[in-house]
Design brief:
This protein is of the alpha/beta class. It contains 17 helices and 24 strands. A six-stranded mixed sheet has the order 6-9-10-3-11-12, with helices on both faces.
Length: 493
């Protein structure tokens, strides 16, 4: 046995993210790791790669205890990870990226580039790969970048390669190239831990599958002895929709997307329709393109093709500024990185989008500013010492309310909400749900993305399925169950 974990536990703020994880992986095995959003897969990977430390339990490597305090220690043991999003440096060449973090060979006091190139080419021959090492990473295709990361991993004598949603941004042809590489790694005796929401890949590639749910392992099965239905049953608790809140009669279509694709390939083909007075949920598993779809509509991402119709009129070349003017707002998933400016006061964060409306002959009207902010603070029950308090000093839930307050000042007609209740307390979550229902009742349209399927079934009127960047069926949320939704997310469309 190459790797074992014994009773691993990990808590965040007193809540278990992992509990009693007993996992094993054999030498030369391709092992699948599956589970719905929030099952604990990422936390387990971060422990194995030294990003997180253990609270309880131990890791065994070839039968001996292994203590991992950092990513460097994990790599020294022979554990390498390739993340869904590339961590290569785009402005450096392939050869330079391969040797990042490795000791450079030196000749007469200078870096020996010839020896580096020879070592990298030898590793490529062993793996059956061929890429231009002098090419800048920025000019490489997605599969070339994946090849480069595999070469870099194998230069470190990798014995366990962890692949996290590796085909999320690949075409079918590019995925076939990756599968061929994985097969060659297995032939060399390298173990592969393969994390994916795509069941066809799990059944095609793996020898065994570990299923996780709510931070626990619910089953370990041989791939040849199970099927899709059995895995889904182990992954989820069954919930039904709560239709009592869904008595609104939706109005006319206000936003439509037809054949939309983003330039980066994360959204491949999206069709959707949103009506006034409704909450449309977009549900997909990790890597399905949920965030990217909202950002494409709002104008954060460049479009490759397709069209957007807003209020019946073509909405061409969307940008964040144009979207705000039109009446479209986006509540970002990354609250701290994109949703607020931490060092600014609450007042300044609330008014960021409409500051120009408070200017008269180039001078800001402080009285009107304060009145507007106070109105929003009271309406959303934002707990703070003063509107001049830096937003970074507020709790996560109150920071999120400030972001909603800023959105309210723009008087939007369409709300694009990406994980709006992420990392907030139960009370704030309930208040955000109430706010979204109120906006829908007032005739606004809400497009909601959440990783929490139970939350989706609680609040959405309809649910748009999204798989691998492509929209699928639209489900009426009446007596709908979580199992029905997940079957579509794990199916082939």
């Amino acid at each position: 046995m190459l790797l074992q974990t014994r009773n691993i536990c990990k808590q965040f703020n007193g809540v278990y993210a992992l509990r009693d994880i007993n996992f094993s992986l054999e030498a030369g095995e391709i092992h699948g790791l599956v589970g719905e959003n929030g099952a604990g897969k990422s936390t387990l990977i971060k422990i194995l790669t030294g990003v997180y430390s253990l609270d309880e339990g131990e890791i065994l490597w070839e039968g001996s205890p292994l203590v991992i305090h950092s990513p460097a220690e994990s790599q020294s043991a022979g554990i390498c990870v390739i993340h869904q999003d590339s961590v290569l440096v785009p402005t450096m060449s392939g050869l330079e990226n391969i040797f990042l973090g490795l000791e450079y060979p030196v000749r007469r006091g200078r870096v020996d580039w010839g020896k580096m190139r020879e070592a990298a080419q030898q590793k490529m021959r062993e793996l059956g790969l061929a890429i231009d090492l002098e090419q800048f990473v920025a000019d490489m295709t997605p599969p070339q970048k994946t090849c480069l990361e595999i070469i870099r991993a194998m230069m470190q004598e990798c014995r366990l390669l962890i692949l996290d949603e590796p085909t999320a941004s690949l075409t079918d042809h590019e995925a076939e190239i990756l599968f061929g590489m994985i097969g060659r790694l297995k032939e060399r005796g390298t173990s592969v831990l393969y994390i994916s929401h795509r069941m066809e890949e799990i059944f095609r590639l793996t020898d065994r599958i570990t299923v996780m749910k709510n931070g626990r392992i619910t089953g370990v099965v041989r791939t040849s002895e199970t099927d899709r239905e059995s895995l889904i049953a182990m992954m989820t608790d069954e919930w039904k929709s709560e239709a009592s809140e869904m008595s609104r009669a939706p109005g006319d279509e206000i936003l439509a997307v037809r054949g939309l694709a983003s330039a980066d390939g994360r959204v491949r083909h999206a069709d959707l329709s949103v009506r006034r007075g409704e909450i449309l949920g977009i549900f997909g598993l990790g890597g399905s393109g949920r965030t990217e779809l909202l950002e494409s509509i709002y104008g954060y991402r460049r479009l490759a093709r397709g069209e957007i119709l807003f209020d019946g009129q073509p909405y061409r070349r969307p940008t964040p500024q144009a979207s705000l003017r039109a009446g479209i707002t986006l509540i970002c998933e990354d609250r701290r990185g994109k949703g607020m400016i931490a060092e600014l006061a609450v007042r300044e964060n609330v008014l960021l989008s409409v500051l120009d409306t408070f200017a008269r002959r180039g001078i800001l009207d402080e009285t009107r500013q304060k009145a507007c902010v106070q109105e929003q603070v009271q309406a959303l029950d934002i707990r703070l010492a003063s509107a001049e308090q830096p937003i970074r000093e507020l709790s996560g839930g109150n920071q999120q309310k400030v972001i909603f307050a800023r959105a309210m000042t723009t008087e939007p007609k369409v709300w694009l909400c990406d994980e709006p209740t992420q990392a907030v307390d139960i009370r704030t979550r309930s208040e955000i749900h109430r706010l979204l229902r109120e906006r829908a009742a007032a005739g606004d349209a809400v497009v909601l993305v959440t990783s929490d399927l139970k939350e989706m079934l609680e609040i959405a009127d309809r649910i748009q399925i999204l798989v691998a960047g492509r929209t699928g069926p639209v489900l009426e949320n009446q007596e709908l169950t979580s199992v029905e939704v997940l079957k579509l997310c794990y199916g082939e469309m």
